[in-house]
Every structure is written in structure tokens, then in C-alpha cells.
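User: Can you fold this complex?
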Amino acid sequence: MSKIPVILNVDTGIDDAFAIALAVSSEFIDLKLITTSFGNCPVKTSTTNTLRILELIGRGDIPVAVGAAGSIMSYLQTVVGSAAHGDDGLGNKAALLPYPEIIPSTMTAVEHMAKTIKESKNNVIIISTCALTNVAVLLLSHPEVAEKIDGIAFSGGSLFSGNVLPTVEANVFSDPEAAQVVLNSGIRVLMCSLEASTGAYFTFEDRQKIRQLETRPSYFLCEALKHHADHFENLLLREGSVLHDIVPVAWTIDPSTVETKPYYIEVDLDGRYTRGSTVADFPKQRRANAAVCMKVDREKLVDLVVEGLGKIG
Ligand code: RIB
Ligand code: CA
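Assistant: Here's the predicted assembly.
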């Protein structure tokens, strides 16, 4: 069985850390490269967090390339930091892990992505769990790689809701122009909308299942998840921490974990209170440019993560 070559673009981040672990655990994914971005924390921190997580799960061999420190239109807005992820991006638990010994690539994220895609025998899937800046700059600066990208699955966007503004989701808010470039690229896109990814929540019992694996990674990830759980329980007034970023990885491993509908999606780039909204053409007058994830199978996702973490560490 040939594995799917994957490039993962992250702003690690608690749910990004789970996304990395899930991707690494899968027998269907060949994780070729991780690129980092600003978002939940500054790019320097998200890079260190990514290296820490890779060391923790024993995959220091996967290259990590440093990416964008801000959005394409940084002078309009650059959003860095998130209460959900704590000051260090890992629920204020990063110091439980040693400072990483592995170091990032000497290439930039965009250069390393281009090289990886060109050298790959099979077409690549890009999974993005943060602002799409690195991916958009890749497509703009190396248009020749587009034909070797089988799909771009991203965590972000929304149809009816928001988590930074009433209709705006954080990853698209962080770089609306980049999301628009990706949606207009002609490449197959999966948008894992906020409405669907909010369904990827882990209860106290689910956390216990992870903890009971009794490995170093499961211990650390559970500690980080506790911070996340407190945040989401206060915000959503219900039990459970939401791991948005596992959704595009789960789809790549097993498409039956999500339900999708095709829509034409355009990013609002001008709105005063709606800039970064992903607006769907509900009357379906325009040809779809994305499969939008509408719903997740929560139980399947929890099983996939627990099973995956069971193979690590
Ligand atoms: O809106 C959820 C997204 O914002 C997730 O990717 C989370 O990690 C943050 O980046
Ligand atoms: Ca993220």
C-alpha cells in the first residue's frame, strides 16, 4: 500500500499538536514536511513547539521549516496569540518538555515545500491547521507545483458562525487574502468549517482514555488538553475541549469521519466587522471551489486519536 505524501502547515498550538501526532501515527500518511506559522503564538514559538512535539513522539527525523511571521497584508492586521492555547501555545505546559535538540530546516517553509513537492514521486496533499499564508505564497511564487498537489485540506472558515468575530473563524481571520488565493487556486480544497470542527470535542472520559495509555506523549498531551478544556468549558458552557485541527488529518486518513457538501466559497476581504468571513454561495449559482465539512463523526474521531496515540511512544 502506498502512503499519501503529506505536508502539514501548523501554528502549534494544542490541537495542532494532536494533529501532528495523529498524522505521524497513521499508516496511510507519509509526513514529508512540517511548516510553521504565526497564529496561536509567534512563529518562533510555534516552531519550537513543533520540534518539541516531534521529539516527544520520537519523530525528530521529519523536517520542520520556518514559515510566515505575519499575514500577506500584515499592515492591515496580524493576530498572534490565543487564550485557548496559553502564553506558550501549549497550555502553559511547554516547559514540561525539554528544549528541543533538533533544529529547523535551513530552507524557508515555502522553499522547502516547493522542493518536497517537486521531488515527490506521488502527488502531495497539503494539510493546513493555521493561517494559509505559507500555502498561498507557495502557490503564487511556485505555480508549477500546483499540478502535483492533489488537495489542500484546511482547518478553518465557517458558514454561519465565528470564534474571533461573529462570522469569522481564527485561521481565515489571520490571513483572509491567503485563504482567497487557496480557494481560487483551482486545486481541490477541503474547508473544515468551524461548525463541523467544533464537533471534534473531547470529554473528560475521552481525556482519561488518552491518559490511560500511560506513555510520555499521552501524559503531556493530556496536561495540555486540561488547559484547553477549561477554556472551552468557560466559552461554550459545556464539557469538552475542541480539537479543530484533527479534522483535516482525520479526513485524509478516513474520509468517512466527515460529511461534506460542495460550495463556492469567497472570502470577505473588505468588511469592517466581517473581514475574513468565508461566504458560501447557498443558492449554488456558481461552480463549487471547495468541499465544505459540515459535520464530523465525533466517536470515530476520538477512536482514531486514541488508537493513533496508542501506537506512539
Ligand atoms: O479556529 C480554530 C483554529 O484556530 C485552530 O487551528 C486553532 O489551533 C487555532 O489556530
Ligand atoms: Ca491551529
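Residues 11, 13, 15-16, 39-40, 129-130, 155, 163, 169-171, 194, 244-245 surround alpha-D-ribofuranose (ligand 1) (CB under 6 Å). DSSP finds eleven helices and twelve strands in the chain.
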